[in-house]
Write a structure and sequence with these properties.
4-stranded mixed β-sheet; carboxypeptidase; 13% strand; Peptidase M14 domain-containing protein; alpha/beta; signal; zinc; 2 domains; metal-binding; 6 strands
Length: 270
């Protein structure tokens, strides 16, 4: 899901750059919004890392899943469980990779597997230029927090459930020049992570590739996966040639079909 809080995101652009919650109405006319990552049904309402105060920035809502956004995530997950093997929610900031439990200092039932996969994930982010991630159990590395999405998914049987706190280490506001490079690095790391979880040869092959975007002579933007070792300009040239070849084949097929239909029409008229 590319975005789960559209109203809050829009408000952060138009009004309050640091807005965290959604924009739900509350019974307090001067306060709006619920912290969606405190609205899931794992130790919901426990005030460790959450609040029952409607004006708080981490207000957990009136009940678990009181918000349509958290319910949408829950319903989508329940529709595909038990086939979901990986859940990763992207947040900012801190350059952290966190796994359950967040609501308690107790260890998760299979913490060893969570920690082992976390180590692999950090390896992928580092190999793509995003270094110095700290990883570990959420309640120990960061703080205790209740009603979180990663705890909920893990409680429902998703074996690998993580929160990735994006760079940088010191601020929510990432310099504009870093947004696209970090986005690309994290995306490529995610592709590799999926390969590790799915464990199919096809999925793993994508880890050695990158998604390259190119523009054709008629100003059409195209993209494709290309070996990471291939120089960027050569990769773009290859993508364009592949696109042009495909378009030519499509055109020839259309011409053949047209000729065939025309021939059938003339034959019918005789």
């Amino acid at each position: 899901m590319p975005l789960v809080n559209p109203d809050g995101y829009t408000y952060s652009i138009t009004t309050d750059r640091m807005w965290r919650k959604n924009r739900a109405n509350t019974t307090d006319s001067g306060c709006y919004g619920v912290d969606l990552n405190r609205n899931f049904n794992v130790s919901w309402g426990n005030v460790n890392g959450a609040s029952l105060s409607q004006c708080s920035y981490n207000f957990c809502g009136t009940e678990a899943f009181s918000e349509p956004e958290s319910r949408a995530i829950r319903d989508l997950a329940l529709a595909y469980l038990p086939n979901i093997k990986l859940f990763m929610t992207l947040h900012s900031y801190g350059q952290l990779l966190l796994y359950p439990w967040g609501y308690t200092f107790d260890k998760a039932p299979k913490k060893g597997k969570l920690h082992g996969m976390a180590r692999k994930i950090i390896g992928h982010t580092s190999s793509r230029g995003t270094y110095d991630f700290v990883f570990g159990q959420s309640s120990w590395v960061l703080y205790r927090a209740t009603g979180t999405s990663d705890d909920y998914m893990y409680s429902k049987g998703v074996p690998f459930s993580y929160t990735l706190e994006l760079p940088n280490e010191n601020s929510f506001i990432l310099p504009a020049m870093d947004i696209i490079p970090i986005g690309q690095q994290i995306w490529e790391a995610l592709v590799c992570i999926i390969g590790d979880v799915v464990k199919t040869t096809k999925a793993k092959k994508f880890c050695n590739k990158r998604l390259v975007v190119a523009t054709t002579s008629d100003n059409i933007t195209i993209s494709n996966w290309v070996r990471r070792s291939m120089p960027l300009e050569k990769a773009k040239e290859k993508i364009i040639k592949r696109y042009e070849k495909k378009q030519m084949s499509k055109l020839l097929l259309q011409q053949k079909l047209k000729q065939k239909r025309e021939g059938a029409r003339k034959k019918k008229m005789r």
